């Protein structure tokens, strides 16, 4: 008699993340996940207490995915604070719409603060704030907030299809914005 193939926790998480990435966080249901994983719903609830526990893991996986995305995103020539972060964030909104919405435009991100999402485990945001301070900014957190309103607005426009600047144009605009806020 052939042994039944076992669906692992990693299989379920990978499938749930793929569903969130391709269809949206709200589309990660037990039935859809079971269909994608090729199993019944029973293995899902054998591994997870409930869907909320699974969705928390999907969010944690998305945070790590964004951090890797930011780390691997091509860096701008000039090393001004918040420019690379802005380019990567806007790029993430353009290329990973569903994950972006889940992480940055939803109240379902649980206890994860915006700072935590951006900073990641590697201290990305803290590094940018420190860089601004080293370049003479007297209020780097305040400067970040001004930049962030601009960056998040551009990324939100990318989600709706209303952002048509090239990456080069975006980089120049971010640099000009940074310099204007520094003045």
Observed structural traits:
183 residues; mainly alpha; Tetracycline Repressor, domain 2
Plain-language structure description:
- The mean pLDDT is 93.
- The chain has a single domain (9-182), classed as Tetracycline Repressor, domain 2 (Orthogonal Bundle).
- The chain has ten helices and no strands.
- The termini are far apart.
- The chain has 183 residues and is mostly helical.
- The radius of gyration is 19 Å and the shape is elongated.
Q: Give the low-confidence spans.
A: none
What is the typical, i.e. mean, pLDDT? Answer: 93
Portion of residues in beta strands equals under 5%
Shape: elongated
Head-to-tail CA distance between termini: 75 Å
Task: Please give a quick description of this structure.
This protein is mainly alpha-helical and 183 residues long.
Per-chain topology:
Blueprint: H1 9-23, H2 30-37, H3 42-47, H4 51-72, H5 83-95, H6 97-104, H7 114-119, H8 124-134, H9 140-160, H10 167-182
Helix pairs in contact: 1-2, 1-4, 1-6, 5-6, 5-9, 5-10, 8-9, 9-10
